[in-house]
Design the sequence.
């Protein structure tokens, strides 16, 4: 039972870090895509959505090249004496962020677009500046989308397999997340642990979906 | 309080806009015109929500000029949108606090408690905007806009999204607002009834151009865009003098006394007296034996044809003007011409209370 703990903890740490980073990165991207008219907007939207269709192994392959000793990731790792970002926790985080980006950007973008111009114009005429409008009007009105995006990103990161396998290399205790451990249990005919992980994941997924639906219902405009 | 000076031009949608006018402090200036005449575009540009070229200044404060464009949050405007746009994520109190907190320190237009009392919204403070009626929402929006301590009020068709009961509910608040604040108020409307009830001055806009402007009654009686309408009417300032024992109100208007059925307000109140051109008939001798109570001696100032069969006769009376719409045949038979003295029989008079 004890060797179940490292992959569980690693998975939770990875999903939490990824979700927090995605909030910081994805929300501004969603804002830019929803509110500004600029050349290349749709191109950026397409790139953000790419991980939805790309096979995870393809994404993992390119990320491996980027993060490896000969890529920019390796150069970055050199700054603190490392050789590569691949096969490390930071590498997993970068891969997960890229892979789950559309799961954050899309719901948040939709939520920003659903707000329309009017509340922001009202805020402007009530003397709220651009940052003030973003934080005190746009974000609160888009909170349903933010919560959906965060939950989906978290769950998607927990469930990913191909990308973490390519970048992380399935190193127990370092880069072996739950989905990889599950695969190993099945491979080694360790049915007991496989059942435990599988059931745990089913329960987790159910709770995530139910919680999201409840939260969205409560946040619907007009709900007290 | 300073006046708002506007001189804006540019293209909006399919047509070009070019307008210059002033909005003096105190009283309501209406920007009047049909839908699509550019009223709202001008209002949005004044607030800085859209860009038009030109100049826009409130007294000494230049909001926009060559090489200068202040964004909306740096202009001291209060903007009331067509549908009351309350923040859905905040309750009524928080909506008000949103405005109050961002108002400049020392703004002394109105305080929180007074704004709540003035618009009768104390019972709504804890409610969400989603649960309010249209009229309630617009009252909260008005209180909110005043709490931002604006130096100009811009009202974009604030009544047009409301049904008739809600309009009747909210109109007195607008009339009260006029008297409570000494700000320049610019009201955009395409509705003649709103114009007659609320405006003191009018700028008439047609296809992006100013085609006439002036004091309310001068425009109502003088601009062909308005006088040719079937519901054309003059609006004269009056004062309630008293009440008769048989249920009539005596209204002093232009040196005469009009009798209106029913009790309207209190003796001494200033009122607006609306006299529709179609409700005025003319006689060259004082009629007797008639059910019409209000017969005024007036002088014809102008006679202008309307279509094939009718003419519009402009009358002067104690320095005020009103209109009569009569058939061309009658005008010919009675030899109605400028300078002639006639008796105007006013069949119906309506009052808008509370306005001077």
Sequence:
């Amino acid at each position: 039972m004890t060797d179940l703990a490292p992959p569980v903890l690693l998975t939770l740490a990875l999903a939490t870090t990824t979700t927090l980073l995605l909030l910081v990165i994805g929300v501004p991207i969603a804002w830019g895509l929803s509110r500004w008219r600029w050349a290349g907007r749709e191109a950026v939207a397409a790139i953000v959505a790419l991980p939805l269709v790309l096979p995870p192994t393809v994404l993992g392959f390119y990320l491996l090249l980027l993060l490896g000793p000969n890529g920019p990731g390796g150069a970055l790792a050199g700054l603190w004496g490392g050789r590569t970002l691949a096969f490390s926790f930071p590498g997993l985080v970068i891969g997960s962020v890229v892979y789950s980006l559309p799961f954050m950007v899309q719901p948040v973008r939709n939520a920003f677009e659903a707000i329309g111009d009017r509340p922001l114009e009202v805020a402007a005429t009530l003397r709220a500046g651009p940052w003030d409008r973003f934080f005190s009007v746009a974000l609160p009105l888009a909170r349903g989308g933010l919560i959906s995006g965060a939950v989906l990103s978290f769950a998607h990161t927990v469930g990913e397999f191909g990308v973490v396998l390519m970048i992380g290399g399935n190193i127990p205790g370092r880069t072996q997340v739950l989905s990889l451990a599950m695969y190993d249990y099945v491979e080694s005919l360790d049915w007991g642990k496989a059942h435990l992980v599988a059931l745990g994941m089913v329960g987790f997924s159910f709770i995530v979906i139910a919680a999201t639906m409840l939260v969205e219902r409560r946040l619907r405009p007009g709900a007290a | 309080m300073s006046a708002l000076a506007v001189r804006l031009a540019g293209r909006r949608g399919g047509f070009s806009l070019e307008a210059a006018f002033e909005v003096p402090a105190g009283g309501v200036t209406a920007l009047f015109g049909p839908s699509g005449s550019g009223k709202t575009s001008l209002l949005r540009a004044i607030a800085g929500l859209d860009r038009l070229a030109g100049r826009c200044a409130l007294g000494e404060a230049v909001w926009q000029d060559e090489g200068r464009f202040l964004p909306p949050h740096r202009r001291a405007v209060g903007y009331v949108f067509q549908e009351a746009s309350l923040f859905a994520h905040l309750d009524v109190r928080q909506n008000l606090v949103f405005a109050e907190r961002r108002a400049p320190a020392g703004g002394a237009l109105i305080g929180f408690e007074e704004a709540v009392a003035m618009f009768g919204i104390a019972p709504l403070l804890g409610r969400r905007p989603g649960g309010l009626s249209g009229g309630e929402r617009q009252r909260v929006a008005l209180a909110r806009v005043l709490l931002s301590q604006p130096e100009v009020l811009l009202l974009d068709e604030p009544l047009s999204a409301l049904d008739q009961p809600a309009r009747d509910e909210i109109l007195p608040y607008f009339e009260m607002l006029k008297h409570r604040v000494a700000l320049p108020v610019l009201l955009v409307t395409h509705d003649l009834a709103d114009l007659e009830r609320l405006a003191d001055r009018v700028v008439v806009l047609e296809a992006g151009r100013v085609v006439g402007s002036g004091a309310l009654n001068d425009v109502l009686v003088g601009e062909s865009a308005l006088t040719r309408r079937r519901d054309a009417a003059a609006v004269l300032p009056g004062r309630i003098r008293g009440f008769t024992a048989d249920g009539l109100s005596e209204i002093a208007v232009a040196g005469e006394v009009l009798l209106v059925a029913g009790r309207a307000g209190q003796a001494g109140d200033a009122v607006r007296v609306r006299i529709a051109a179609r409700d005025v008939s003319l006689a060259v001798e004082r009629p007797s034996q008639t059910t019409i109570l209000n017969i005024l001696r007036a002088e014809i100032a102008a006679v202008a044809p309307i279509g094939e069969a009718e003419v519009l006769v402009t009358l002067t009376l104690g320095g005020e003007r009103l209109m009569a719409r009569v058939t061309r045949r009658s005008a010919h038979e009675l030899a109605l011409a400028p300078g002639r003295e006639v008796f105007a029989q006013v069949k119906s008079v309506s009052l808008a209370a509370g306005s001077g």
Summary: The CA atoms of residues 7 and 172 of chain A lie 8 Å apart. Chain A touches chain B at residues 118-119, 121-130, 132-133, 136-137, 140-141, 143, 221-224 (CB under 8 Å). The two ends of chain A are 45 Å apart (CA to CA). The longest helix of chain A spans residues 5-35.
